[in-house]
Amino acid sequence: MDGIQKGFEIVVNNYRKLLEEEGVTPMEAEGKQFDPYTHEALLVEECRDDIPENTITEVLDEGYYLKDKVLRPAKVKISKHTKGTPLAVKVVNKDKDKTTFLGKN
Known about the structure:
The protein is an alpha+beta fold. It has one helix at 2-21, and strands spanning 24-26, 39-46, 56-61, 64-66, 69-72, 74-80, 87-92, 97-102. Strands 1-4-5 form a 3-stranded antiparallel sheet. Strands 2-6-3 form a 3-stranded mixed sheet, with no helix packed on it. It has a two-stranded antiparallel sheet with strand order 7-8. A hairpin with a 2-residue loop joins strand 4 (64-66) and strand 5 (69-72). It is elongated, with a radius of gyration of 21 Å.
């Protein structure tokens, strides 16, 4: 089993080297400011005040460049400040619609 694992590691490393030689490089996104041209925001989370708004807090799927062009945008989670605005969640019941507020006012 060890030989099979080492074989796969060699193939993956050779594939990465080949991609790098062709100009494919991974994006460095975590901790950077969100850019809609290079990132795709899948999730937004309320964050602490010391983290700037629209900062990438987590990379969900790695993005790549082909030389200087975006090959695939990074799928990310970004920060958002609510500053006293409640989070609204619409709860749908069989009988009626009701809006429930969660968080701080």
